[in-house]
Amino acid sequence: MEQPLGRRDLLRLTALGAAGVPIVSTLWSASAHANRATGGSVMKTAYDPAAKFELKVSEVEFRRATSGRMLQARIYQPQGVGPFPTLLDLHGGAWNNKDRFANEPMDRAVAASGVLVVAVDLTLAPEAPYPASVQDANYGVRWLKSKAAEWNGDAANLGVLGSSSGGHVAQLLALRPRDARYNAIPLSAVPGVDASVAYVATRSPISDTFARYQQAERMKREGMIKNNKAYFQPWEAIFEGNPQQILDRREAATLPPMLIMQGALDDNVLPAVQEKFAATYRAAGGDCELHVFEGCEHEWVAKPGPQTDRAHAMVKGFIARNVTAARRAS
C-alpha cells in the first residue's frame, strides 16, 4: 500500500517546484521510495504535458534498407525518473525524400514534456516502392516495443506520430497492424511482439492517396506526380494502399484513436479530403479528432509561431488523454 507523503516531503516538493524541478518526477520518486520501504510495487510516472525535462539526444542503427543504406534512429530521451510514454515518429517527404530530422522541432517539444520519442529513417521510393516504408514502420513499432526500456520508456501504450506521407504510413500501420505484407521484416529477438499501436497523431496526412494525386494533376505539379508514380508500383497500389478506400471498402481494420491536424490553406492535401476521412473513420467506429489550423499551409509546423506552438500542445494533450485512458482501463 502506498504511504502518504509527510509534511516534510510536501514542503520539499513545494521548494523544488518553485525552483523549476519537474514535480511529476519528484512525486514519483517519493512515492517509489515509500513503496520500496513497505515492499509495495512502484508506480509508473503520470504523464503531465506541461512538465519540462532536459533531453539526451542520441542515435543508433535502426535497420538496413534493401538498397544497402543503413537507416538510423534518433532518440529523444527525457532525463528523469520515468519510465516515460513512448512515441515513434515517421517522417514525411512525399515518400521520396527527407529523413529522421524532418520533424525535429515537434519531436523535441513532445519529448521535453516527458515522452520518449524515437524518429526513424524510412526506405525512400527510389530505393524500393510501396509497401517498403510501411514495412519499416511496422518493424519500427515492434523494434521500439522491444527497446524502449533501454531508454527509460514504457512501450505498453506506444503511439505513432506521422507527418504528410509519414501520416499516410502511420494510418496504414494503424489500420493493418497484422497485415502479412507489412509484417514481412522479422524481428527474431522478440518474435511474439506485434505492431499494434495505442493511438496515432498526424499532421497533414495523405489520407486519400488518389485524391492527392488528382490534386497534383490539377495543380500541374510534375514533381509530385513523379513522386506518386515512383512510390506506387504497380499503379494499382495507389488504391490498395489508400486509407480512405480501405474504410470505403469496409475492410476489417483496427481503429485506434487518431488525431489529424490540417492547414486550412493546404493546397497539397485538401481540408475537404481530411474532413471526409475523419467522418468515415468515425462512422466505422473509430475516434478521430480533426483540427483545422487557419492561415496555415501544408508544412506550417516547420516555422516557429503561435500555430506551431498550438500543434505541439495539441499533440501533447492527445498523448496525455490516451495514455491516461489506457492506464485507467488497465
Looking at how many chains there are and whether they match, the oligomeric state comes to single chain
Question: What share of the residues lie within helices?
Answer: 25-40%
Kindly provide the radius of gyration, computed on alpha-carbon positions and rounded to a whole number of angstroms: 20 Å
> In one word, what is the shape?
globular
- Number of domain units: 2
Order of helices and strands: HHEEEHEHEHEHHHHEHEH
Global mean pLDDT: 89
CATH level 1 name of the largest domain? Alpha Beta
Percent range for β-strand residues: 15-25%
Biggest sheet, in brief? Answer: 8 strands, mixed
Structural class given helices, strands, pairing? alpha/beta
User: Low-confidence runs (pLDDT<50, min 5 residues)?
Assistant: 1-43
DSSP summary: helix tally? 11
What topology, given as strand order, has the largest sheet? 1-2-4-3-5-6-7-8
Q: Would you identify the CATH architecture of the largest domain?
A: 3-Layer(aba) Sandwich
CATH topology label of the largest domain: Rossmann fold
Describe this structure in words.
The protein is of the alpha/beta class. It folds into 2 domains: 1-43, no CATH class; 53-329, Alpha/Beta hydrolase fold, catalytic domain (Rossmann fold), CATH 3.40.50.1820. 39% of the residues lie in helices and 18% in strands. The protein has 11 helices and 8 strands. Helix 1 runs antiparallel to helix 2 and helix 4 packs across helix 5 (165-175). The longest helix is centred in the C-terminal third of the chain and has 24 residues, at 306-329. It is globular and about 50 Å long.
Task: Give the key terms.
disordered N terminus, 8 strands, alpha/beta, Rossmann fold, 330 residues, eight-stranded mixed β-sheet
